[in-house]
Structure formats: C-alpha cells, structure tokens
Design goal:
By secondary structure, the protein is of the alpha+beta class. It has one domain.
C-alpha cells in the first residue's frame, strides 16, 4: 500500500512509520497486545489551527473533538485498507481504554512517545508532543500493523522543549510537576473526577474489562464535555510554530 497518497487524500499533516525495533520493550509489548504479529506503528496527526484556541471553551471543544474524530476515522480506514491487502492491522482505540502507569494516565499505545521516536517532535514538560512544524497543536492517532517492508529508520528530532517552566507556572490546577502530569489535577478532568473520587477512578483504570465495556460510551461523553483549559498549550513558546509559513 502507498501510504503517502493515502494520507494526502485524508488531509493528514504529518506521519511516521515507526518500527517496533526502535521502541522500548514496553511499547513493543503494548503494540503486540493489539496485533500479536505487529512490526510497526503508523502514527499520524492533524493540526489544530491557532485560531481554534481563541474560541469559547464550548466551541473550542467541539472543533478539537471534530478534528480528533476525523483523525480516528482515518485510522479505521487505514487499518481496513491494510487488512484488504492481507496485512494484519488495528487502529489505536479512541479515548478508551487507557491505563495508569507510575501514577500517570496514559493511552494503551503511547502515541506521543511513538511519534517522538518517529521524528515527529519531542515531549514537553506538559506531556504534550511539540512538533517542529505545528508546535503543540497536533492531534494524533495511529495504526498498529504487521507491515515492515522498507521501513526507513527514523531519527528523533532535537529536543524542542526549552524547559522554560511557562506551562508549569500557567497550569491553574498545578497538574504539571517534576514527575510528570497528574491528569486528575488538570482542569479538563478534575470537574468530572472530584478529589474524593480519584481513588475509585484509579481503581477503575486498572480494570481492563470494565474499560472495554465503557469504551463505546467515551466518545459520547467527550462530545458533551467542555475543554475548560488549554493554558499548557497556548503559553508554550512553540505554540505558533509553523503558523507564519502558511
């Protein structure tokens, strides 16, 4: 399958095909939970335009979720195309399930880490992928696949995070600390999970069966949620990266 024309037709802004040999053992194991014979992860993203972050919280949420859902549908179509060509593949699930690792909430496939390994950017202190072309404004999705023929070895880009601490100081929930991001302190999560509920939420995140049952409801809930805060994105010195070139 010719990946480049497919992504051009889909309106994808950036992508990388990352061999599992370029990933840590934990990420290789996670990919093989989705596709036992997996050899690579195709990770890709769409840009969120700068003006979206100036919209009201409700409008901003709708637009970002629209972009995320379009990107998720691209992953589903890509996996279907690969399967038609007898290449085992599976899209990375949208929103749920997730997992709790070292006290931090992560997707079952760490797309930001894989994108960084694929040269699409680096991870900032806020846990967001910073792209040299699109700043901190890429919405990611991915497909785990058994495709391996002709995968070029990827080279991570130089660290784009300046360690300026602006995101740490700007976060109203003090969610960004020296050990990473505490999602339950984030203003986009804390209204849904009050402090007294956090132990139960962490218990739930360790129950994969319950998460699989709840997964179909996650996009519905997300559509009715409101992204109250995006300060860690907008204060980043890389926020407008690439804007002036278009």
């Amino acid at each position: 399958m010719k990946i480049d024309p497919f992504f051009q037709a889909e309106g994808i802004d950036a992508y990388a095909i990352v061999s599992l040999t370029d990933l840590p053992d934990a990420d290789r194991s996670d990919a093989r939970h989705l596709v036992p014979c997996a050899r690579s992860v195709i990770v890709f993203g769409r840009e969120v335009p700068v003006p979206v972050y100036g919209l009201s919280p409700a409008e901003k949420t709708r637009e970002i979720h629209r972009i995320a859902e379009e990107t998720d549908r691209t992953a589903i179509r890509l996996a279907e195309r690969l399967l038609q060509e007898q290449v085992p593949a599976a899209p990375v699930p949208f929103l749920l399930p997730v997992r709790l690792e070292n006290g931090q909430v992560q997707g079952i496939i760490r797309l930001k880490r894989i994108a960084a390994a694929g040269g699409l950017g680096t991870i900032g202190r806020s846990g967001i992928l910073i792209s040299p072309r699109f700043g901190a404004r890429l919405v990611l999705s991915g497909v785990v696949t058994a495709m391996d023929g002709g995968i070029p070895r990827t080279t991570p880009v130089a660290d784009l995070c300046r360690n300026c601490g602006l995101c740490v100081r700007a976060c109203p929930g003090r969610a960004i600390g020296p050990d990473g991001v505490d999602a339950f302190r984030c203003r986009n999560v804390s209204p849904w999970v009050p402090p007294s509920w956090v132990p139960f939420a962490k218990w739930l995140l360790r129950r994969k069966t319950l998460q699989r049952l709840a997964a179909p409801l996650a996009p519905v809930i997300a559509r009715h949620a409101t992204m109250r805060c995006s300060r860690c994105v907008t204060v980043c010195p890389n926020f407008r990266t690439g804007e002036q070139s278009r």
